[in-house]
Amino acid sequence: AIHVVGTNGKSTTTRLTEALLDDAGLAVGAYFSPHVRGWSERIRIRGEDADFERAVAAVRGAAERVGATQFEVLTAAALRAFADEDVDVAVVEAGLGGRHDATNVLGARVVVLTSVALDHTDVLGDTREAIAEEKLAVAGPGAVVVLGEPEWEEIAMRNGAARVELTARSNLALAVAAAEAFLGRPVDAAAAGGVALPGRLEHRGERPLEIWDGAHNLAGVGYLLPRLPEREYVLVASILRDKRPAMMLEALSVLGSTLVATRSPGGRALPAHELAGLGRPF
How many CA atoms are closer than 13 Å to the CA of 278, on its beta-carbon side? Predict the structure, then answer.
């Protein structure tokens, strides 16, 4: 397996790695979270969405007996489906952190750390170093660890990594390094050129230009801003209460002077009027 952990960029890196290994001739399983359009996005086998209902049904009885959480059920369903389909490699995205994440049953040969930023600090710690420790706890003895941020090399080696591969910080560079570490030979990076994920710099229309992106924390906004075409934007946003929304809005205000505040489903999202109030100074 290849285990993908990190604050941002995990889904894209997982999908890119899947494409590179598929092009190299392997039967690939890939596991993602969260989904954007539908649950079936979470489990892919040989380049296609798996039969999600069948995958979940295979573990439902055992999951109900032990009172598994939703994420535990999904992880078990994915790994069971990969085993049933006899894939050559599973590329698995962690859900939250690493040490206590349900995906940390893999003993993966290759671990990828995409990035480390302050997020989920109530669970993972309030410094980048503490968060990196939690995420790299999945790197068991003998694993190859791929890093785009060299400052975490010591933590990886302390956890028993056989070696650390340092590469550029882009998702594609991380995916190429991960695939090559797994295969032991070069891959064709162009094979991942057509990969696109919903809600990740997704172009929804041109007249007017409409882009959807799930930049859900300050680091995600920092990644997004330099990748947008330069023009005046109307910002339509919902932000969760625990994601430092005022700082996110200040950063996003460089895009334009108009905010349409809304509220996504779920109890953690700020009410629209509160979000609008935070945005007024900018």
Answer: 23
Model pLDDT, residue 166: 93
Residues in the chain: 282
Cα R_g (the chain), whole angstroms: 19
Cβ–Cβ < 8 Å for 270, 239: yes
Chain center to CA of 181 = 20
Give all strands (DSSP E) within 161-278, no chain letters: 163-166, 202-206, 209-212, 234-237, 258-261
CB 250 within 8 A of CB 236: no
- Under 8 Å between Cβ of 195 and 15: yes
Cβ proximity of 245 and 251 under 8 Å: no
**CB distance 153 to 147 below 8 Å:** yes
Q: Token digits for 142?
A: 């003998």
Exposed/middle/buried for residue 37 (C-beta within 10 Å: 0-12, 13-18, 19+): exposed
**How would residue 124 be classed by pLDDT, with cut points 50, 70 and 90?**
low
